[in-house]
Design goal:
The chain contains 8 helices and 5 strands. It folds into 2 domains: about 10-85; about 100-260, Intergrase catalytic core (hpI Integrase, Chain A), CATH 1.10.443. It has helices at about 10-20, 40-60, 65-85, 100-110, 125-140, 190-205, 230-245, 250-260; strands at about 25-30, 30-35, 155, 160-165, 185-190. It is globular, with a radius of gyration of 20 Å. It is about 45% helix and about 5% strand. The chain has about 260 residues and is mostly helical. The longest helix has 24 residues, at about 40-60.
C-alpha cells in the first residue's frame, strides 16, 4: 500500500457518494433534486468506510519490513480519519427531517424563482432558492453558505462543487455575528439545478446589488448598506415563508431542522 490509501480528492468523492440516498430523486418541474441521507447516517457510513480501510491496512502495517514505513502508514491512517471526520456534516442531531416529503416538496416548489406563489421580491428569488436548495440538498448548517466567497464556488467542469474553507480571524469578515464552520474544510458536489441557480444568481442578481464588486462573500443582502448576507437575513427568509404559508407550519419545521445543524 505504501501509505497512500485514498488521496484527498478520492475521500471527498467517497463522502459525496455516501451522502446519496437510495430513494428516488425529488422532481421539481423539469429539474431533478437528489435526496441525501441524514447526517447521522452519513457519519455512520464514513465510520464504516474508515473501519474497513483500517482493517485492510492492518496486515500491511504488521508486515512492513521497515519500521519507518509502518509509522508512515499509521500516520496516514490518522490523517485519513481526521479528513473523513471533517467531511461529516454533523453527527449529533437526533432527527434531521422535521418535514414530510410532501411538505419539503411544497417548499421547494413555491420558492422556485418562477413559481407564481413565490413570496420573495424578484431581486432575491434566485439567492433565496439557492440557499434553500443548499440546506435541503447538501444538509448544511445555517451559517455555512454565508462563509462562501467567489473563489469557493466552482460551478463549471465535470464536477461542479462548493468549497468550504475555515477562515478564522478573516480581516474581510465585518458581520456582527460572523457565520462559522464547525468542521474542517470540505468540498461538496452540487446538482445541476443547484449549480444553475447559483450561476443565475451570480450573473443576473448579484451584480445589481450595492458593493457587489467590493464584498468578497457570495451571498449579499439587498439593503442599502450592501453587506454580506447575515444570519439574521437567513432568519428573515424563513420568517417570510412562515408568514406567507402558515398552514402546516412547514417553514417553521424546516427552520428548526436547519437550526439544529446551526452553530450560529
Amino acid at each position: 500500500m505504501g501509505g497512500a490509501y485514498l488521496y484527498p480528492d478520492e475521500v471527498e468523492a467517497l463522502s459525496n457518494r455516501l451522502r446519496s440516498s437510495k430513494r428516488p430523486p425529488r422532481v421539481l418541474g423539469n429539474s431533478i433534486v437528489p435526496r441525501i441521507v441524514s447526517a447521522n447516517t452519513h457519519q455512520d457510513r464514513m465510520n464504516w468506510a474508515f473501519a474497513y480501510t483500517n482493517w485492510r491496512a492492518a496486515p500491511y502495517i504488521a508486515r512492513a519490513a521497515d519500521p519507518s514505513q509502518a509509522i508512515n502508514m499509521r500516520d496516514r491512517l490518522t490523517e485519513l480519519k481526521e479528513q473523513m471526520k471533517g467531511l461529516c456534516a454533523c453527527g449529533t442531531e437526533k432527527v434531521r427531517e422535521s418535514l414530510t416529503d410532501e411538505q419539503r416538496s411544497f417548499l421547494l416548489t413555491v420558492t422556485r424563482p418562477d413559481d407564481t406563489r413565490n413570496p420573495f421580491r424578484p431581486n432575491t428569488r434566485h439567492r433565496n432558492f439557492a440557499l434553500i436548495l443548499m440546506y435541503d440538498e447538501l444538509g448544511l448548517r445555517k451559517g455555512e453558505p454565508l462563509t462562501l466567497k467567489g473563489e469557493d464556488v466552482m460551478l463549471f467542469g465535470s464536477r461542479p462543487r462548493l468549497i468550504f474553507v475555515p477562515r478564522p480571524d478573516d480581516p474581510e469578515e465585518t458581520r456582527a455575528k460572523p457565520p462559522l464552520l464547525k468542521t474542517a474544510g470540505r468540498s461538496l458536489i452540487t446538482s445541476a439545478l443547484l449549480s444553475k441557480t447559483l450561476n443565475d444568481y451570480a450573473v443576473n442578481q448579484r451584480p445589481k446589488m450595492r458593493n457587489s464588486k467590493k464584498i468578497p462573500y457570495y451571498f449579499l443582502n439587498t439593503k442599502d448598506n450592501g453587506e454580506a448576507l447575515s444570519l439574521d437575513g437567513v432568519d428573515d427568509i424563513f420568517r417570510t415563508l412562515k408568514n406567507r404559508f402558515p398552514e402546516g407550519n412547514c417553514s417553521r419545521g424546516w427552520q428548526k431542522s436547519v437550526a439544529r445543524r446551526s452553530i450560529g
